[in-house]
Amino acid sequence: MAVAGEVVVGVGPVAADDVLRVARSGVPVRISAEALALVGAARAVVDALAHDPRPAYGITTGFGALATRHIPPESRIDLQRSVIRSHSAGTGPEVEREVVRAMMLLRLSTFATGHTGVRPGTATAYAAMLNAGITPVVPEHGSLGCSGDLAPLAHVALALTGEGDVRDAAGRLVPAAQALAAAGLDPVVLAEKEGLALVNGTDGMLGMLVLACHDLRALLRLADVTAAMSTEALLGTDRVFAADLHALRPHPGQATAAANMTRLLAGSAVVASHRTPDCPVVQDAYSLRCAPQVAGAARDTLAHAEQVAARELASAIDNPVVTGDGRIESNGNFHGAPLSYVLDFLAIVVADVASISERRTDRLLDVARSHGLPPFLAHDPGVDSGHMIAQYTQAALVADLKRLAVPASVDSVPSSAMQEDHVSMGWSAARKLRRSLDALTRVLAIEALTAARALDLRAPLAPAPGTGAVVAALRRYVAGPGPDRRLGPEIDVAVRLAASGELVAAAEAAIGALD
Question: Which SUPFAM superfamilies does the UniProt record give (predicted)?
Answer without folding.
Answer: L-aspartase-like
